[in-house]
Amino acid sequence: MTKPNDSIHTSSREGVQSSEKNEAGENSGASQGNNASSSIRPPMMPANVRAGQVIGLVEVTGGLGSSIDVSKLADEFSANIETLLPILDTAEMLGLVRVEKGDVYLTEFGSKFQKTSRNKVRLVKDILAKIEPFKTAVELCNQKKSVSAREVSDALFSKGLSWHHSPEMNEALVQALLIHWAIYAKLLKYDGRTGMFELA
Amino acid sequence: MKQQEVNISSQEIEFSQTTEVWKALEIDTAKRQEITARGQSDLEIPIISVEHVSLDYRKEKEQLPVLVDVSLTAYKNEFVTITGPSGCGKSSLLRIIAGLSKPTSGVVKFKEQPVTKPTTQIAMIFQNFVLLPWRTALENVMFGLSSRQDLTEEEKKNRALKALDETGLSGFENVYPGELSGGMKQRVGVARALALEPEVLLMDEPFSSLDNLTAEHLRKEIYSLLINPTSPIQTVLMVSHNVEEIVELSDKVVVLSARPAHVVADLKLDLPRPRNKKSQEFFQWVDKLYSLLA
Hints:
The structure holds two protein chains of two kinds.
Chain A: H1 6-24, H2 29-34, H3 51-63, E1 67-69, H4 70-76, H5 81-93, E2 97-100, E3 103-106, H6 108-115, H7 125-128, H8 134-143, E4 146-148, H9 149-158, H10 167-183, E5 188-191, E6 196-199
Antiparallel strand pairs in A: 1-3, 2-3, 4-6, 5-6
Helix pairs in contact in A: 1-5, 3-5, 3-6, 9-10
Chain B: H1 2-10, H2 19-25, H3 29-38, E1 48-59, E2 62-74, E3 78-83, H4 90-98, E4 105-110, E5 113-114, E6 122-125, H5 137-143, H6 153-166, H7 182-195, E7 200-204, H8 212-226, E8 235-239, H9 243-249, E9 252-256, E10 263-268, H10 280-293
Parallel strand pairs in B: 3-8, 3-9, 6-7, 7-8
Antiparallel strand pairs in B: 1-2, 1-4, 4-5, 9-10
Helix pairs in contact in B: 5-6, 5-7, 6-7, 9-10
């Protein structure tokens, strides 16, 4: 399978965190200044991270005490860094963990998330609504009753945002992200028979 | 004798008052002492009883023994794991318990009745999910209820929706399997089994095709879903070769040898729950199982 565009993914990783912090009013001037595009680039969800992986990460981090070394986490799950880092990025973007000097700390919100027994992903619904591609999907659903993944990916592309240079692959990645996160969080509804998303 | 045990158990007789009952049942003295000594809990009949099961595969004129005289029991509220080296016949044994295939000799009993074909009281979850790709999640779960002639379509749909909700898939009713992640596909598989409201759940390496982080939380979720007072499931039998997973989940572990497989150990795993994977006792059990499997 073709991998997502690394350059886009990497730059979005930097930008996502700083701009997310901007919205929360917690960003230091230094990280904003380090990446000129971060102030205009909205947070973007890494393409290949699934909700179950983030839930697993939070549970393991919480179960092992206040913090865990990233390398130990990788060992614990026989996961390589290429797999683990986007999961960590996503968990940090959602405000569930804080990564500092190679250690992963559970935030207060992450601790609440860990202790919630059912439908954990619904707790991050409001945060997801500020992250792409969910933000654009919700905007489009507000304009017209239902949208396809293609319409969302085209709208994002026109804003200069994509996960892959191929439109078809980009659409598939957007579709997977919307299904794996937005439906879980009850942000959107989806009907596989029509391929259309609606507000939940 | 078995029937007499059932009667005693169902009447919940106080042992201090059993003398007259024993006389009435005309049980011989030695047997009476043996049963009394075992205590009331042991008088329960097993939910699943595998009795001297052997399985041979035939290849042209050759006979290949796979399972040799395998016996095990699973009682109410027990989570039993069957483990052993790769290819030893664990999954074949589970399929026999499910009534999906027949043993060469021996018998599997569900509440003392021989299992000779699949029954709605015994549901199974597969390693590779076994979902129909052209059916939505809801249709896949409803498909599992196809054989229930006693349910209307509306009742089947309501059961399927409830099962999807219980497995955290509310909102995914109209999504096709190809659009779901591995963890979600397995949730559909679990929902399909739960919709049957079975008394026995069989799981064939249910987490082995998932990545470790996904498996970590799904394992906990499914365990709490299965083992709770509102669940109709009375016993779970799982096939696994993941030693940590076995120690985390099981009340009892049955270890099979390499093929032809026979039972080399039948161990009660009495660690308190929730189990701490970093505790000394947990490590000791992991070591013990590795030494039995190696």
